[in-house]
Design brief:
Arc Repressor Mutant, subunit A, Umud Fragment, subunit A, alpha+beta, 2 domains, 10-stranded mixed sheet
């Protein structure tokens, strides 16, 4: 990775801190206001430079499509909060609500890059995929998923566990429950894929 200027380093640290505290990247407006930039063009310029130097993944034309690559290593997988596999609920703070830690080595997972976390499931909308109320899912943070993946999705200030289908006009959040209908999300909403479910953990059988 190439050296950063003092200002580039400040912008990167803000993005990383925001991502760790909020569970999603800052918006262009967040960055502009924090640093007192006069226009969004200045934000674009810094993001482009940070991306070329390898410190962030910058996905153009995607809301909050700024993914820092230098997340601090977590030796264990943190269980952060409960996620509804049903109706959407308010997204809780990721870092301030850590309930316990899981030993990733004992679960046969490599979390040396600190990109995984655990969520406790509420509800039964993913029951056809074997995900039950009270289960714990292990999630790898990534900005994209396939239509078959079970994804953690943020919509405005809410979060849910669903499959994701994209159409030219909107996004469909697909439950895996014969009694539930897909949720249509208009493209005007602030939508972000937080990560992909990679493992299911159940204490009780």
């Amino acid at each position: 990775m190439k050296n950063l200027t003092a200002r580039e380093s400040e912008v990167l640290k803000f993005i990383e801190s925001y991502y760790m505290e909020q569970g999603h990247s800052p918006s262009f407006q967040d960055i502009m206001v924090h640093f007192g930039f006069k226009s969004l063009n200045s934000v674009t310029d810094y993001l482009t430079r940070l991306s070329k130097k390898g410190y962030i993944e910058y996905i153009r034309k995607q809301s909050r499509g700024i993914i820092p690559k230098r997340i601090p290593t977590m030796p264990h997988i943190p269980l952060l909060y409960e996620i509804p596999a049903g109706n959407l609920q308010v997204l809780q703070s990721l870092i301030s609500d850590i309930q316990e830690q899981f030993d990733w080595e004992a679960m046969g997972l490599d979390n040396s890059d600190g990109q995984m976390f655990a969520l406790r499931v509420k509800g039964s909308s993913m029951i056809n995929r074997g995900i039950r109320d009270g289960d714990i899912v292990i999630v790898r943070m990534q900005p994209t998923v396939t239509e078959r993946d079970v994804a953690v999705v943020r919509v405005n200030d809410t979060v849910t566990l669903k499959r994701v289908e994209r159409t030219p006009d909107n996004i469909r959040l697909i439950p895996e429950n014969d009694l539930m209908e897909p949720i249509e999300i208009d493209s005007a909403n602030d939508v972000q894929i937080i990560g992909k479910v990679v493992r299911l953990f159940r204490r009780d059988i």
